Amino acid sequence: MSTIRNATRHLTCGFVNRLDTLGMLRRSRRLKGSGAARRALGRSIVILALAMTHSVAGTSYTNAKQKPLHVMNIKLYAYNQMSWEQFQCYNYLIHHESRWNYKARNGSHYGLGQMRSKWYGTLSPYKQIDTHIKYIKHRYQGNACKAYAHWERKGWH
């Protein structure tokens, strides 16, 4: 087991070193202050966080037959469903609602989005995200920032 961890750390360090090259620094100087630079920085942070997640092998098993689920994998799935700006609002919203715990329960509210349905609490985290995004599309015209603003004003969304 330790040899696998060492090999993973070695591969991850090589990946991180490739991210931190002079060529990447030059590209970021040309993009300085643009929207593309912010998106590129956001995506590189997500990639780096994912690489670091796998390097420390910090996973939690839901049961022996399922694949390991980690918060960063769940966040990456959500991020791939929307733009960076929308993901930032969605991240704040889910963090306040459930701290990205897909098993969270607060009275009659369940899951990542703390929706009022036992059925929602039985879904996988990925299905919870899909369902929650569908709810946001219906109620807030697909704008997670509107949902977060409503949460800040009212304490619910």
Describe the structure.
The protein is globular. It is an all-alpha fold and 157 residues long. Strands 1-2 form a two-stranded antiparallel sheet. 66% of the residues lie in helices and 3% in strands. The chain has 2 domains: 2-55, no CATH class; 76-154, no CATH class. The protein has 8 helices and 2 strands.
Descriptive keywords:
157 residues, mainly alpha, 2 domains, two-stranded antiparallel ribbon, 8 helices, 3% strand
Order of helices and strands: HHHHHEEHHH
Radius of gyration, whole Å: 18 Å
Number of domains: 2
Query: What would you call the shape?
Result: globular
Mean pLDDT comes to 78
Summarize the structure.
The chain is 66% helix and 3% strand.
Write the layout of secondary structure elements.
Elements: H1 2-19, H2 22-30, H3 35-55, H4 71-79, H5 84-98, E1 105-106, E2 109-110, H6 118-122, H7 125-140, H8 144-154
Antiparallel strand pairs: 1-2
Helix pairs in contact: 1-3, 5-8
